[in-house]
Amino acid sequence: MRIEDVYFKELSKETKGRKKKEDTFGFRCKKVLSRGFELISSILNRMRT
């Protein structure tokens, strides 16, 4: 399991049982964070090779 998977699992636990407005905000945050994770991992992969 990757670090980001664990992080998103914890994040989804926190957002459960909240209003839909907050859920969409959380979803937007996840989207931005996942893009950031992709960028970081791609940079790390380039450094390894």
Provide key terms for this protein.
single chain, 49 residues, mainly alpha, 2 helices
Gyration radius over CA = 13 Å
Structural class: mainly alpha
Taking the alpha carbons of the first and last residues, their distance comes to: 22 Å
In N-to-C order, the SSE pattern is HH
User: Biggest sheet, open or closed, and with what strands and sense?
Assistant: none
| Assembly state of the chains shown | single chain
Helix content: over 70%
Beta-strand content estimate: under 5%
Gist of the model:
With 49 residues, this protein is mainly alpha-helical. The chain has 2 helices and no strands.
Explain what the structure shows.
This protein is mostly helical and 49 residues long. The chain has one domain (3-48). 86% of the residues lie in helices and 0% in strands. The chain is built from two helices and no strands. The protein has helices at residues 3-15, 20-48. Helix 1 runs antiparallel to helix 2 (20-48). The radius of gyration is 13 Å and the shape is elongated. The mean pLDDT is 76.
Give the topology, please.
Layout (H helix, E strand, L loop, with lengths): L2 H13 L4 H29 L1
Helix pairs in contact: 1-2
